[in-house]
Each structure stands twice: as C-alpha cells, then as structure tokens.
Design goal:
This protein has 499 residues and is an alpha/beta fold. Helices cover 42% and strands 17% of the residues. The protein is built from 22 helices and 16 strands.
C-alpha cells in the first residue's frame, strides 16, 4: 500500500498553498567522522528531509493550525534530541500563539544511536503537549503507519481527537523487536488501527483525505468561541396531560427517536468519538462533538436501541462518559448528557468491573464539572445508569420521558412481589415529566405532538432549539456562579417535602 510522506500528507490535509515551515536547520547530535554522522548524512540524502519531523503552520478549512508531522523514511521516524527539540519548540509556539495543533506521527520510537538521552526526550514532548492542552487548546492526532514505542506512548496518545491510517501498525513494542526478544511472533491483528478502533483507543480509521474532513469538523466545535452567543426566544410548552404509564409505554416504542436521530436532525458538525481511550468501548454510549444551532457541545448520549441489541450500559460505557466530561472541562465546552436507558447492566462482569463505583464517579464528576451542563431526559430513565448522567445546570425532559429508581415493574416486584402493579406504582412515584418538574428535578418539558414517534424530525428540531436556548443562556454566566447554583440546586432537592 502506498502511503503519503510527511510533505504529501500536509498537502493533502491542509488548505492548498497554506503551508509555512517553522523549521531551522537542526543541530547535529553526531560528532564528525562517526558512524552515526554517516547514517544521518545518508538519511538526509535518501529521504530529502533534514530530520525525522517537520513542523510549521497552515490553514485547515480556513482556520490557522500548527502542524507536527513525522517522516518515516528518515531513520524510521525515530526521535532523537534534535527532533524532540523541534517538536517541543513547535508545540510551545502553538501554545503561545493559541493555535490548535495537528500531529501526524509515524515512528519506530526513540533513536537508538542516542540512547538514554533520546529516550527521556519523550518526557519533554509530553510536558509541552500537556501544557498546550491545559491552555484549553485542541490537540488532534492522526496516527500513521507505523507508530510504535515511545512516540505512541507519549505524544501519539494524548489527542483530544485521534484518528488512524487504515491498516497502520500501531503499538507499544514493535513486532520485530518482540520476536527478537521472545523468540516467537507477536499475535497477528492486534497492533492494527482497526483493532485499536474496536477497543476504543482511536476515534476513527480514515485515509489522509478523510482525516482532513474529520479534523475540520472537529475543530469547528473545539474552536468555536463560547462567549457572545445570542440567545433566542424561550421554547414554548404546550403539554397534553398524560398518565405516567402511558408515558412509559410511549417511551419504550421501537420507533421512538433516540440520540442518533436527535443528532441527525438537530445538530451540525457532528464528530463521533470512540471509546474511553483506555482500551474500552461500549456501543450503548455515544460520545460526540456537535453544535446545536450556534452552541458547541460535547455530547454523551445513551443509545437505548444499541443497549438492547448488545448489552445494557456497563462500567466501560461510564468510563467513556467520563472521558467526555474531561474533554468538556479541559476545552471549556458545554456538556450535554442524554438519558435514555432501561437500566444498567446486571451481570458478574459489570459487578467485577466496578459498575457501582463508576456510577458514583460519573455523578461526582458531573456535579462538580467546571463546564456548563445540560441533561436531556429523552426516553426511558431507569436506575443508576440514568442518575449517573443527571446532575446538570439545567435538566430538560421530553414529555413522555421519565426517571425512576427502577423500571416500574421492578418497583412493583419489590413492594408486591408481582409486576402487575407497575402502572399504579409509576403514578404514585412521580416519575413522569410534569411530576419531575413540579419537584424541581426538571426545568423544562419539551412537548411531543402528540408523540415523538409520530413526528421524529419535528420533535428533534424542537429539542435542538431548546438545547441551544439553555446552552447559550448558561454560557453568559460565570463558571463560579454556575457551580454554586448547581450545588445549591441539588442540596435543596426534597427539602420542601420535609417541611
């Protein structure tokens, strides 16, 4: 397979004619007349590059970005002191000039000819990348064939959004080194981009051409300013009275729009992200970047259909959710959580995987998050899986959505040892949208006219407008004020019932 070199990749990803190099001639780490000096000279002559990385800037969809790209034909893209200094200087300049950073590693790792000193350069690069992220600036990574060793274990694994080249070899220890050390080959199909995607370690596997589109779309959300957004008129509420059991029955319809339909009709610049970044993925949890009208957001959505088709939401899905929370806090983006779940997984694997602890951590992270937060109760809202996504600055609820400690059938079984009393239990427990609003759990109810399943596009557009209204309103408030109001809100819940 033909793969682009660094310059070709840059020409493919950036806007035509926009590239400007930041590189000065590198300091030569090898003494004259040494074998290493000869290797460097040969690499420069053969590859046409002066080092294993090039850095600079260009525009991406009209947006100015900084770029760091490896060149594998130069000594297998290995990173020595000169290459590390070039990378670090470029990252630091991007931070100073407040530029998003696009990195495209392709490397065998540390340069063996420079030994331990080259090895510890990964710390320097990592510190610079982390400082860039801490400044609230986006870092987008495109892993190319091959990316291994210290490069993958440092700046290759720190992206806010990470894509990979199709069929690329990506792994910590290169297979040739593994076989030399252990005497047998590394298992096939493990260190391949597509397998990393299956395990939630990269967000997409795309060609260089498609990497351009992914980066442009992601940066449309990641770089959208959150100040000065205009707030429209408040959404109207025109609600038909509905019994709790009717709402629950409607929420369970197979044709009821879910989170993916919502993003299709109500959002723009949608960039799906994949997995926890820690080797876990779960199909029932959607993580994405998106915009609702003018308001950018990180979206965490429970996908009820995929939960039913595959498995209920488990600890892995909650760790994916916590990745989204960290992303929102780090980049100063609002967070939208979407609740639509029949309940968390009940299994040996879920218990041993720390399900209860992950629910607790999600709640703790969300209720203290340094970002504007909106929760949308879209359909079913059963148990701890729903509670983990609930504590937000503003809580919206579709007219036929609901929230309950258990599905009503479960509550009926506890109280009466039979599921037959579920309708009566649901009515008494106050699980429907209007009850939730009356008790201060929900702030706004979004009408269904008469049912979201009958008007999926119109309903989703209505929800999108309500989300934009709430997000733009929250973004006018200082972060400290939002945090104090959120804390007071949940502290006060239920106190009126005791007076």
């Amino acid at each position: 397979m033909s793969r682009p070199d660094a310059r070709t990749l840059i020409e493919t990803v950036l806007d035509k004619g926009s590239w400007k190099s930041w590189d000065a001639p590198p300091a030569d780490p090898a003494g004259p007349g040494t074998s290493y000096a000869d290797e460097l000279a040969a690499a420069r002559a053969k590859s046409g590059y002066d080092e294993s990385v090039i850095t600079g800037e260009g525009s991406l969809g009209g947006r100015r970005v900084a770029v760091v790209a490896s060149e594998f034909t130069f000594m297998a893209g290995s990173i020595g002191v000169a290459a590390a200094e070039r990378i670090t200087a470029a990252v630091e300049r991007a931070t100073r000039e407040r530029l998003p950073l696009f990195a495209a590693p392709a490397s065998g790792g540390t340069r063996m000819q420079e030994g331990a000193l080259a090895f510890v350069q990964m710390v320097k690069i990592t510190a610079a990348v982390q400082a860039h992220r801490a400044a609230g600036l986006p870092y987008v990574v495109y892993l190319r064939h091959p990316t291994t060793g210290g490069v993958f274990a440092s700046w290759g694994s720190l992206g806010h959004v990470t894509a990979a080249e199709p069929g690329a070899l990506i792994g910590f220890l290169g297979p040739r080194v593994f076989e030399s050390l252990h005497g047998y080959p590394f298992p096939e199909g493990v260190q391949v981009a597509e397998n990393l995607y299956r395990h939630g370690l990269v967000d997409a596997v795309v060609s260089a051409e498609d990497a351009r589109a992914v980066a442009i779309r992601a940066l449309e959300v990641l770089c959208t300013g959150t100040s000065g957004l205009e707030r429209g008129a408040p959404p109207e509420e025109d609600l038909r009275p509905v019994e709790a059991w009717e709402a629950i029955t409607r929420s369970r319809r197979d044709d009821r729009p879910g989170v993916r339909t919502l993003l299709k009709f109500a959002a723009s610049d949608v960039t799906p992200l994949n997995g926890s970044g820690e080797g876990e993925n779960e199909p029932g949890l959607l993580l994405a970047l998106a915009r609702f009208g003018t308001a950018p957001a990180v979206v965490l959505g429970q996908d009820r259909r995929r939960q039913r088709a595959n498995s209920p939401l488990g600890p892995a899905g909650l760790r994916v959710a916590r990745r989204g929370m960290r992303l929102a806090a780090e980049l100063g983006l609002p967070l939208v959580t979407v609740v639509d779940t029949a309940g968390a997984a009940l299994s040996k694997a879920a218990e041993e995987g720390g399900l209860a602890a992950e629910i607790a951590r999600c709640m703790a992270d969300l209720v203290t998050l340094d970002a504007a937060t909106v929760c949308l109760l879209l359909g079913e809202g059963a148990g701890g899986a729903a509670l983990a996504f609930l504590p937000a600055d503003r809580v919206l609820c579709a007219q036929h959505a609901w929230l309950s400690p258990l599905p009503p059938e479960g509550a009926s079984a506890i109280l009466y040892r039979s599921v037959d009393f579920a309708p009566e239990i649901a009515q008494v427990q106050g699980v429907r949208a209007t009850d939730l609003r009356r008790n201060g759990i929900v702030d706004r109810v979004i009408p269904e006219l008469p049912d979201a399943a009958y008007e999926p596009e119109a309903f989703c557009v209505r929800v999108g407008r309500a989300l934009e209204y709430e997000l733009t309103g929250l973004l006018t408030e200082p972060s400290s004020a939002r945090a104090a109001t959120r804390t007071s809100r949940y502290r006060a819940l239920g106190t009126q019932a005791l007076s």
